[in-house]
Amino acid sequence: MSARRTARVASMVREVVSSAILSELRDPRIRNVTVLGAEVSPDLRLARVRISVMGDEKAAALTMHGLNSAKGYLQARVGAYIRSRYTPELRFILDDGVRKSVEAAAIIREALEQDAAMHGTVAVDDESESEDSEVGLTDSAGG
Questions:
Q1: Which pLDDT tens digit goes with each residue over 25-43?
Q2: Residue 47 carries which DSSP code?
Q3: Rounded CA gap, 86 and 127, in Å?
Q4: pTM, two decimal places
Q5: Which architecture does CATH list for 3-95?
């Protein structure tokens, strides 16, 4: 299969699964889920769907169990949408990257606030600081 075809099918799988989770599944175990992406094997028989779950590990485990229970329904929806000879078998992979980055940002923010409190300085707003530095970079690069 061409790389373009597998990429297109992967995009369709992500779209269909995301839409079905959002509007069709009524399983109370499946909550706060984001479909991050999908990778499809070259023969289109396997699709790995990467998901992110906001919450603790217990919520993530419940969501994974719920998604695996709904796997047959989701595969049928994907099969009806892509109309291919084979319907890819869905495998859900929990991606903790988003949750870890949110936690890291919170830790950094807390450390900056503590540092500002210790040194008696006022924390600088990120947006105003980046705007000032962008203007400086633009002026020096342009001249």
A1: 999 999 999 999 999 999 9
A2: E
A3: 49
A4: 0.71
A5: 2-Layer Sandwich (3.30)
